[in-house]
Amino acid sequence: MLTAAHRLRAAAEFTTTTRKGFRAAKSLLVAHYHLPPGATGPAKVGFTVSSAVGGSVIRHRLTRQLRASCRALLPELPTGSRLVVRVLPAAAQAPALAVQNELRSVVTAVLDQAATK
């Protein structure tokens, strides 16, 4: 699980990350990445799972799986960076391993995109 220091919770940070950051999308997940200028502190990760994905049980199960998977990805994120992962409705039917693999893929893609610009 992610520690409290690594969890993105403020609505303003979600908005800034999704509007000003880089974006990479796959069939199950979309990642938004933003590194604010002069940012310090730990990298933070947040999740957006709409009701279109499924009922409460399904949404929370996917969020728990993604939180656990993101813990392994934290060392790859620069200090002070923000990452928002949006879950698409197709993820509700996908196996957990497919969601985990796509998470790694989409985060790598968005970090590569940010590094080239």
Write the layout of secondary structure elements.
Elements: H1 11-20, E1 22-25, E2 29-34, E3 44-49, H2 56-73, E4 82-87, H3 96-116
Parallel strand pairs: 3-4
Antiparallel strand pairs: 1-2, 2-4
Helix pairs in contact: 2-3
Report on the structure:
With 117 residues, this protein is α+β, with helices and mostly antiparallel strands. The chain has a single domain (27-116), classed as 2-Layer Sandwich (Ribosomal Protein S5, domain 2), CATH 3.30.230. Helices cover 42% and strands 19% of the residues. Helix 2 crosses helix 3. The N and C termini lie far apart (31 Å). The relative contact order is 0.26.
Can you give me a brief rundown of this structure?
By secondary structure, the protein is of the alpha+beta class. It has helices at 11-20, 56-73, 96-116, and strands spanning 22-25, 29-34, 44-49, 82-87.
* Lateral strand order in the biggest sheet: 1-2-4-3
Distance between the termini: 31 Å
Which regions contain 5 or more consecutive residues with pLDDT less than 50?
none
CATH topology: Ribosomal Protein S5, domain 2
Secondary-structure-based class equals alpha+beta
What proportion of the residues is helical, as a percent range? 40-55%
What is the general shape? globular
Give the ordered list of helices and strands. Answer: HEEEHEH
The CATH class, by name, is Alpha Beta
**The CATH architecture:** 2-Layer Sandwich
Number of domains: 1
Number of helices: 3
Beta-strand proportion: 15-25%
Largest sheet: number of strands, sense, barrel closure? 4 strands, mixed
Mean pLDDT: 95
Radius of gyration: 13 Å
Q: Please provide the count of β strands.
A: 4
